[in-house]
Amino acid sequence: MMLTEQRKRRLLLPASMTKKGRGYMSDPVKLKRSMPLEGCTISHDGLIIRSVPDIAKIILQRSNNVTDSEMEVFGQKFDQTFGPELSQQVCRKTVSKDGTITAHCLNPTIWIILCDDQDVGTITGWFEAAAQEATITTSEITDQYICLDIEGRHAQALLAKGCALDLSSESFSENHVVRTLLAQTNIVLWRNKEDGYRILFDVSLSDYLWLWLKGAATEFSGM
Asked: What region, left, alpha or beta, does residue 183 occupy, with left being phi > 0 and alpha being psi -120 to 50 degrees?
Protein backbone atom coordinates (compact mmCIF):
# COMPACT_ATOMS: atom_id res chain seq x y z
CA MET A 1 0.00 0.00 0.00
CA MET A 2 1.34 3.45 -0.91
CA LEU A 3 2.01 5.79 2.01
CA THR A 4 0.71 9.32 1.79
CA GLU A 5 3.31 12.11 1.84
CA GLN A 6 1.92 13.37 5.18
CA ARG A 7 2.26 9.95 6.79
CA LYS A 8 5.78 9.54 5.39
CA ARG A 9 6.80 12.84 6.96
CA ARG A 10 5.39 11.76 10.34
CA LEU A 11 7.34 8.51 10.23
CA LEU A 12 10.55 10.34 9.42
CA LEU A 13 10.24 12.84 12.30
CA PRO A 14 12.92 12.17 15.01
CA ALA A 15 11.78 10.79 18.32
CA SER A 16 12.12 13.04 21.36
CA MET A 17 15.62 12.48 22.68
CA THR A 18 17.47 13.62 25.77
CA LYS A 19 21.23 14.09 25.83
CA LYS A 20 22.91 11.86 28.40
CA GLY A 21 26.68 11.83 28.61
CA ARG A 22 28.10 11.37 25.14
CA GLY A 23 25.02 9.73 23.74
CA TYR A 24 21.29 10.19 23.66
CA MET A 25 18.38 8.35 25.14
CA SER A 26 14.63 8.57 24.76
CA ASP A 27 12.86 10.78 27.28
CA PRO A 28 12.28 8.56 30.30
CA VAL A 29 8.79 7.66 31.42
CA LYS A 30 8.46 7.98 35.19
CA LEU A 31 7.30 4.63 36.49
CA LYS A 32 5.84 4.13 39.93
CA ARG A 33 8.05 1.94 42.09
CA SER A 34 6.49 -1.33 43.19
CA MET A 35 7.97 -2.76 46.37
CA PRO A 36 7.29 -5.98 48.30
CA LEU A 37 4.73 -5.57 51.11
CA GLU A 38 3.37 -2.41 49.48
CA GLY A 39 -0.08 -1.73 50.96
CA CYS A 40 0.23 -4.59 53.49
CA THR A 41 -1.20 -4.03 56.96
CA ILE A 42 -1.56 -6.07 60.15
CA SER A 43 -4.12 -4.56 62.51
CA HIS A 44 -5.18 -5.60 66.01
CA ASP A 45 -6.48 -3.64 68.97
CA GLY A 46 -3.50 -1.67 70.23
CA LEU A 47 -1.23 -2.74 67.37
CA ILE A 48 -0.86 -1.79 63.73
CA ILE A 49 1.94 -2.75 61.33
CA ARG A 50 2.02 -1.18 57.87
CA SER A 51 4.40 -0.52 55.03
CA VAL A 52 5.60 3.04 54.49
CA PRO A 53 5.24 4.07 50.82
CA ASP A 54 7.08 6.68 48.76
CA ILE A 55 10.04 7.02 51.10
CA ALA A 56 13.61 7.20 49.81
CA LYS A 57 16.70 6.01 51.70
CA ILE A 58 20.22 7.36 51.30
CA ILE A 59 23.41 6.15 52.97
CA LEU A 60 26.01 8.84 53.70
CA GLN A 61 29.47 7.67 54.68
CA ARG A 62 32.70 9.50 55.47
CA SER A 63 36.17 7.99 55.31
CA ASN A 64 38.65 8.06 58.18
CA ASN A 65 40.44 10.88 56.34
CA VAL A 66 37.56 13.26 57.08
CA THR A 67 38.03 14.89 60.48
CA ASP A 68 35.25 15.55 62.97
CA SER A 69 35.57 19.30 62.42
CA GLU A 70 35.31 18.90 58.63
CA MET A 71 32.24 16.73 59.05
CA GLU A 72 30.73 19.25 61.45
CA VAL A 73 31.09 22.02 58.84
CA PHE A 74 29.61 19.70 56.21
CA GLY A 75 26.67 18.95 58.52
CA GLN A 76 26.07 22.63 59.22
CA LYS A 77 25.84 23.33 55.48
CA PHE A 78 23.35 20.48 55.14
CA ASP A 79 21.34 21.91 58.03
CA GLN A 80 21.27 25.37 56.41
CA THR A 81 20.11 23.90 53.09
CA PHE A 82 17.62 21.20 54.10
CA GLY A 83 16.80 21.65 57.79
CA PRO A 84 18.13 18.70 59.81
CA GLU A 85 21.68 18.74 61.10
CA LEU A 86 23.89 15.69 60.72
CA SER A 87 24.23 14.70 64.35
CA GLN A 88 27.64 13.46 65.47
CA GLN A 89 25.94 11.63 68.34
CA VAL A 90 25.54 7.95 67.53
CA CYS A 91 22.03 6.50 67.73
CA ARG A 92 20.41 9.93 67.47
CA LYS A 93 18.03 11.26 64.84
CA THR A 94 17.43 14.80 63.63
CA VAL A 95 14.53 16.03 61.54
CA SER A 96 13.85 18.97 59.24
CA LYS A 97 11.38 21.62 60.36
CA ASP A 98 8.73 20.41 57.91
CA GLY A 99 9.26 16.79 58.97
CA THR A 100 10.05 15.51 55.46
CA ILE A 101 13.76 14.72 55.95
CA THR A 102 15.30 12.75 58.81
CA ALA A 103 18.99 12.05 59.39
CA HIS A 104 20.01 9.09 61.54
CA CYS A 105 23.53 8.66 62.87
CA LEU A 106 24.17 4.89 62.91
CA ASN A 107 27.84 5.13 63.87
CA PRO A 108 30.55 7.83 63.78
CA THR A 109 31.02 7.42 60.01
CA ILE A 110 27.58 6.41 58.67
CA TRP A 111 24.24 8.21 58.45
CA ILE A 112 21.00 7.10 56.85
CA ILE A 113 18.79 9.81 55.38
CA LEU A 114 15.05 9.27 54.88
CA CYS A 115 13.17 11.64 52.59
CA ASP A 116 10.32 11.85 50.10
CA ASP A 117 10.89 9.97 46.85
CA GLN A 118 10.66 13.22 44.89
CA ASP A 119 13.52 14.82 46.87
CA VAL A 120 16.13 12.07 46.62
CA GLY A 121 17.80 13.40 43.46
CA THR A 122 18.13 16.90 44.91
CA ILE A 123 19.64 15.64 48.17
CA THR A 124 22.12 13.17 46.64
CA GLY A 125 23.17 15.81 44.10
CA TRP A 126 23.79 18.30 46.91
CA PHE A 127 25.86 15.76 48.84
CA GLU A 128 28.06 15.06 45.82
CA ALA A 129 28.58 18.77 45.10
CA ALA A 130 29.19 19.77 48.72
CA ALA A 131 31.67 16.98 49.41
CA GLN A 132 34.08 18.42 46.81
CA GLU A 133 37.49 16.82 47.49
CA ALA A 134 36.47 15.25 50.80
CA THR A 135 35.96 11.48 50.76
CA ILE A 136 32.28 11.58 51.66
CA THR A 137 30.18 9.19 49.61
CA THR A 138 26.46 8.65 49.13
CA SER A 139 24.41 5.71 47.88
CA GLU A 140 20.68 5.57 47.30
CA ILE A 141 19.37 2.32 48.80
CA THR A 142 15.64 2.88 48.30
CA ASP A 143 15.11 -0.29 46.28
CA GLN A 144 17.22 -2.40 48.62
CA TYR A 145 15.36 -1.68 51.86
CA ILE A 146 11.78 -2.06 53.08
CA CYS A 147 10.34 0.38 55.61
CA LEU A 148 7.59 -0.59 58.09
CA ASP A 149 5.87 1.30 60.90
CA ILE A 150 4.88 -0.63 64.05
CA GLU A 151 2.59 1.40 66.32
CA GLY A 152 0.27 1.07 69.30
CA ARG A 153 0.43 0.18 72.96
CA HIS A 154 1.55 -3.39 72.11
CA ALA A 155 4.31 -2.35 69.68
CA GLN A 156 7.09 -2.64 72.26
CA ALA A 157 5.89 -6.05 73.45
CA LEU A 158 5.74 -7.33 69.87
CA LEU A 159 9.31 -6.24 69.12
CA ALA A 160 10.53 -7.69 72.42
CA LYS A 161 9.55 -11.14 71.11
CA GLY A 162 12.39 -11.04 68.59
CA CYS A 163 14.74 -8.28 69.74
CA ALA A 164 17.14 -8.59 72.69
CA LEU A 165 17.41 -4.82 73.25
CA ASP A 166 15.85 -3.16 76.27
CA LEU A 167 13.13 -1.16 74.46
CA SER A 168 11.79 0.59 77.53
CA SER A 169 11.47 4.35 77.19
CA GLU A 170 14.17 4.77 79.87
CA SER A 171 16.75 2.87 77.79
CA PHE A 172 15.50 3.46 74.24
CA SER A 173 13.69 6.77 74.22
CA GLU A 174 11.92 8.59 71.41
CA ASN A 175 14.16 9.56 68.46
CA HIS A 176 16.81 6.95 69.27
CA VAL A 177 17.91 4.76 66.38
CA VAL A 178 20.08 1.65 66.34
CA ARG A 179 21.11 -1.29 64.20
CA THR A 180 20.03 -4.54 65.80
CA LEU A 181 18.43 -7.94 65.16
CA LEU A 182 14.73 -8.74 64.95
CA ALA A 183 13.86 -12.43 64.54
CA GLN A 184 17.55 -12.95 63.64
CA THR A 185 17.21 -10.37 60.85
CA ASN A 186 19.43 -7.29 60.60
CA ILE A 187 17.32 -4.15 60.90
CA VAL A 188 17.59 -0.44 61.59
CA LEU A 189 15.22 0.35 64.46
CA TRP A 190 14.02 3.89 65.11
CA ARG A 191 11.65 4.83 67.91
CA ASN A 192 9.82 7.62 66.09
CA LYS A 193 7.18 8.21 68.77
CA GLU A 194 6.42 7.12 72.32
CA ASP A 195 4.35 4.11 71.19
CA GLY A 196 5.71 3.72 67.67
CA TYR A 197 8.74 2.36 65.84
CA ARG A 198 9.99 2.38 62.26
CA ILE A 199 12.13 -0.50 61.00
CA LEU A 200 14.23 -0.81 57.84
CA PHE A 201 15.52 -4.12 56.52
CA ASP A 202 16.79 -5.79 53.37
CA VAL A 203 14.14 -6.32 50.70
CA SER A 204 15.21 -9.94 50.23
CA LEU A 205 13.97 -10.72 53.76
CA SER A 206 10.55 -9.09 53.36
CA ASP A 207 8.52 -12.33 53.11
CA TYR A 208 10.30 -13.95 56.05
CA LEU A 209 10.02 -10.96 58.38
CA TRP A 210 6.41 -10.21 57.44
CA LEU A 211 5.48 -13.85 58.19
CA TRP A 212 7.24 -13.58 61.56
CA LEU A 213 5.48 -10.30 62.41
CA LYS A 214 2.14 -11.77 61.38
CA GLY A 215 2.65 -14.79 63.62
CA ALA A 216 3.97 -12.80 66.56
CA ALA A 217 1.08 -10.34 66.33
CA THR A 218 -1.58 -13.04 66.75
CA GLU A 219 -1.01 -12.94 70.52
CA PHE A 220 -2.55 -9.46 70.54
CA SER A 221 -5.53 -10.25 68.30
CA GLY A 222 -7.93 -10.80 71.20
CA MET A 223 -6.63 -8.13 73.55
From this structure: left
Output the DSSP codes for 200-219: EEEGGGHHHHHHHHHHHHGG
Q: What is the number of residues in the chain?
A: 223
What is the dihedral sign for C-alpha 53, 158, 179, 209? negative
CB 46 within 8 A of CB 153: yes
The answer to whether the Cα torsion of 111, 117, 123, 124 is positive or negative is: positive
Q: Sorting pLDDT into bands at 50, 70 and 90, what band is 134?
A: confident
**Of 37, 49, 36, nearest to 158 (Cα)?**
49
What local confidence, expressed as pLDDT, does residue 94 receive? Answer: 80
pLDDT by residue (tens digit) across 78-111?
999 998 888 888 887 788 767 889 999 988 899 9
Report how far residue 83's alpha carbon sits from residue 98's, in angstroms, rounded to the nearest whole number.
8
**Identity of residue 198:** R
Residue 29 in this model has a pLDDT that exceeds 70: no
Picking from 179, 197, 177, the residue whose alpha carbon sits closest to that of residue 187 is 179
Interhelix angle 68-82/120-131, rounded to 10 degrees, is 140
| CATH of segment(s) 41-220 | 3.30.1360.120
Q: Are strands 110-116 and 185-193 parallel, antiparallel or unpaired?
A: unpaired
